[in-house]
Amino acid sequence: MSPEKTSAKQPAGIISLQGVHKSFKGRKVLDNINMDIMPGESHIVIGLSGAGKSVLFKCILGLLRPDRGAILINGEEWFTLPIEEKLQRMSCVGVLFQGAALFDSLPVWENVAFVLRRQGMNKPEARERAAEVLEWVGLPDICDKMPAELSGGMKKRVGMARAICHRPDIIFYDEPLAGLDPVMSDVITTLMKRLHERMNVTSLTIAHSMKLVREFSDRVSMLYEGRIYQQMARHDIDSSHDPVFKQFIEGRADGPIQFTFSGSDHGKEAT
Length: 271
Known about the structure:
Helix content: 25-40%
Number of helices: 9
Oligomer: single chain
Distance between the termini: 12 Å
CATH topology of the largest domain: Rossmann fold
Number of domains: 2
CATH class of the largest domain: Alpha Beta
Strand order of the largest sheet: 5-6-7-3-8-9
């Protein structure tokens, strides 16, 4: 396996991972992860299913605690802060979860304005802001609908509206195109690009879609065998000669990443 390809002597990022390790029942999932996400950057993490992308995402968000290492956001290690201060710091973050994760019992506008209401904004102002953001994502006049009345693509856009409603500096996207048809995938990709350009946010995305990678990323990191196997600028993706990286981005079953096919004489053990 090739060494980690990270840039040396760069200034610290707005998100900085330093020697992060995480294991479950003795199995290493994250093994000495070092990564800096720079202010205003769109950084996408790719990798096989089970490579540790979601674990990395949850560690950065504070949903899981690393076994070792430090995760700094805006120069602070949030794990060390009292819960009240940690929640206060989280106001600079927006998250679009893979399944949108809307509250079924709340109407759309209250889902979108959830953070604003927790911050103490009154209902009329919060509803007005929610309506403004919903219109921005192409969903006017749905403030009073319930999540159960929405299609999958609509839920994803409501989730995006919620992620940006409080004007965060950092947005996390967890598989933003999962479960969407090609047309809606393009709609969401377009919205992500518009948001990144207009709000000058820092974006960290977990994705499988190479179309999204090519259209939305500034830099790409590939997780493989628990480590950052490759890290490169978007314009270098298609010129990489690394066989593991090329197999992944080209979506080929044949290559150094091997799998077992039941009942086949040609099956090989997965690495």
